[in-house]
């Protein structure tokens, strides 16, 4: 049974950042609650514990102690960013500076989240953060946009967008730990090696790939006058396998990306 410890940052008397009518502690909690719901309802053999599930102040050492005593397999701290530079926006995540057990987790989660959300990718980072340093298990802190930026703030006030953020987290966790979806949801990872406006362009790319021994098929994404032709070079149940295949394609100088497909 996988144990996931979710830590919504701040709470109670600690509001976190505030800007554009947004209080960070509230956004953090909303994302965390959505994430718990997605994990529990859509995946088998997963338990979730939260540092807080309502507006209450929890000291950092108590959060860490709770996760360590529970013997969690993953610690994920959810935050939003803020800056005096109002143009600064986007998503980033952190692992402990000297971490050796969280780097692969960061690779997978970062990829899953940035493919799911619509704000700029600020990259994968390291920092000497207490909750990352003192936890015994792989740990990551996600910064899900700048409430100080008008564009990010508008998104962070949208519950649908917060659910999207949570789903990106959940899919990354599921991929890293190879969680199996319940019968209500089937998820796999499709590798796309080019989107084209014409079928002729897609056929050219398909031929180029075939010359290297890679079989593909062309998927028509839109059934109207604005059709888009995607060259699908692989489908995988494991995100890691899909990621490794993308690396192989990139070595052959074929730019590719992964799309998460969910069948309900």
What do you see in this structure?
The protein is an alpha/beta fold. The protein has two domains: 176 residues, 3-Layer(aba) Sandwich (Aminopeptidase); 78 residues, Alpha-Beta Plaits (2-Layer Sandwich). It is built from eight helices and twelve strands. The longest helix has 19 residues. It is globular and about 60 Å long.
Number of helices: 8
Q: Using the alpha-carbon principal axes, give the shape.
A: globular
Total domains, how many?
2
The order of strands across the largest sheet is: 4-1-5-8-6-7
Helix content: 25-40%
- CATH class category label of the largest domain: Alpha Beta
Superfamily (CATH H level) name of the largest domain: Zn-dependent exopeptidases
The CATH topology assignment of the largest domain is Aminopeptidase
Mean model confidence by pLDDT = 91
Low-pLDDT stretches are none
Q: Kindly state the number of beta strands.
A: 12
Pfam families: Amidase_3, SPOR
Keywords: Hydrolase
GO molecular function, one term: peptidoglycan binding
InterPro entries: MurNAc-LAA_cat, N-acetylmuramoyl_amidase_3, SPOR-like_dom, SPOR-like_sf
In summary, what is this structure?
This protein is of the alpha/beta class.
Structural features:
N-acetylmuramoyl_amidase_3; six-stranded mixed sheet; 264 residues; peptidoglycan binding; 38% helix; Aminopeptidase; 8 helices; Alpha-Beta Plaits; alpha/beta; SPOR-like_dom; single chain; four-stranded antiparallel sheet; 2 domains; N-acetylmuramoyl-L-alanine amidase activity
């Amino acid at each position: 049974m996988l144990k996931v410890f979710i830590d919504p940052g701040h709470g109670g008397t600690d509001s976190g950042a505030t800007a554009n009518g947004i209080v960070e502690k509230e956004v953090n909690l909303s994302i965390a609650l959505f994430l718990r719901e997605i994990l529990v309802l859509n995946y088998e053999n997963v338990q979730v514990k939260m540092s807080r599930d309502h507006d209450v102040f929890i000291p950092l050492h108590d959060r860490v102690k709770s996760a360590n005593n529970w013997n969690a397999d993953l610690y994920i701290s959810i935050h939003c960013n803020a800056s005096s530079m109002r143009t600064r926006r986007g998503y980033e995540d952190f692992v402990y500076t000297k971490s050796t057990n969280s780097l692969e987790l960061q690779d997978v989660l970062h990829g899953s989240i940035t493919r799911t959300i619509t704000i700029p990718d600020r990259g994968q980072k390291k920092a000497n953060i207490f909750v990352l340093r003192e936890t015994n298990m792989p740990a990551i802190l996600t910064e899900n946009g700048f409430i100080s930026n008008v564009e990010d703030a508008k998104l962070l006030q949208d519950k649908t967008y917060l659910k999207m953020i949570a789903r990106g987290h959940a899919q990354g966790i599921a991929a890293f730990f190879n969680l199996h979806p319940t019968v209500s949801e089937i998820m796999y990872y499709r590798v796309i090696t080019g989107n084209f406006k014409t079928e002729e362009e897609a056929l050219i790319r398909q031929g180029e790939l075939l010359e290297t021994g890679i079989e593909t098929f062309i998927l028509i994404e839109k059934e109207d006058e604005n059709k888009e032709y995607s060259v699908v070079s692989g489908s995988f149940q494991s995100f890691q396998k899909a990621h490794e295949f993308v690396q192989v394609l990139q070595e052959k100088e074929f730019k590719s990306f992964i799309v998460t497909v969910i069948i309900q």
